[in-house]
Amino acid sequence: MVFTKVLIPTDFSAASMVMTERITEIPGLREVVLFHARRSAGPPPDESLIRRMQESMQQQGLMVTVVVAEDDGTDVPERILRAAADTGTGLIAMGVRDQGLLRNLFSGNVAAAVLRDTRLVHLLIVPQSGGGRPPLFENLLVPTDLMATAPEVRSVLKDRAGDGTAVLLHVIEPGHAGTEQEAGDRLALLRKDLLPTEREVHVLVRTGDPARTICAVADEINASAVVIPRIGKRDAAGSAPLGSVTSAVAGCVRSPVLVLAIPISLKIETRELRREEFPLAEEIWLDYHQLKADPETDRVFGVFADGTLVSVARCRRHPDGYEVDGVFTPLRFRGRGYARRAMDALVEACQHDTLYMHSVRNLVGFYGAYGFVSIPESDLPPTIRSRFAFALGEMEGANVQPMRRAAGPFRR
After folding, report:
1. Where do the domains of the chain lie?
2. What letter would DSSP give residue 148?
């Protein structure tokens, strides 16, 4: 990938200035934005130091713009991201201190917040000690989940630097399906799909914890940089701002890390589960009263994100009525509207019957959008009412509100 314009944040510490020393190792670079965010409590920036940094990069044939942002009450990371957007830079390059990236990225500092919050701009993180390592883009380690190689990764691999090598690495987690031979065959196909390329590409399969294995291999091959997406398929269905593997790699790797902001398109499917799929719902319900699904009485509706069940809702037939319950989305998948999709499907399919439920009180408004109205406990059918007999008539004390939806068309 040709990064023609790069933003380098600096607070003039030795760590933050490492990028000005290694800036020419970024292939295709033509323009640099040297950015400093002032703090109200700190001294004014040393204009002579900024000028020397600017002149040093200009002497290397780069066009350099200096931006000093006054303290406007917002955090420094927010001002860095705003500057990247305002100047149209495609890459933020940051130097961090030694002793691994963990303490630098996850201790509430600027680099940590930029890594967490940047969604549209790529981020290059370079530790201060780089002695003995090759140029940044010479010997790349590229972890892969065996999905088709993203265009952004392809572009990075095309840009040859020095001898120009790369290793495609797939890590098989213990207990997961698949063998090293199968993974190796798929890696070989990915490598073939990358050809022709001037860069020599190798493939490698290992078994173990993904992040620890990636970090170990990076040391083993003396990787000049680890190239990894900010979020992978395993986390894309959730609301986490940063993928679990990428987060962990940033915590243990000693090589520079190029975190690519790769857009991920998920296939979302909402439908009723087949009875042989009920165990999938029960896995989700482990964290929700450990409910069990009964094929004789239950209809279960789910939302699948790229084949992974991420939210469920159940309609159970009792002798005297139909009850909605088990509406649950695991914590890691919340914030994406999956529960609403599951309820849409349930109410659409069950609209011809009167539906009852025990809603937790803070979700009364949510279910009200589907036509459920609050009712006294005495209006519940006996078998449904008996499920909360432990409350002894004190629904409010149990934080539960009985509700009913009259049979009728579903309209959002």
Report:
1. 5-260, 268-405
2. P
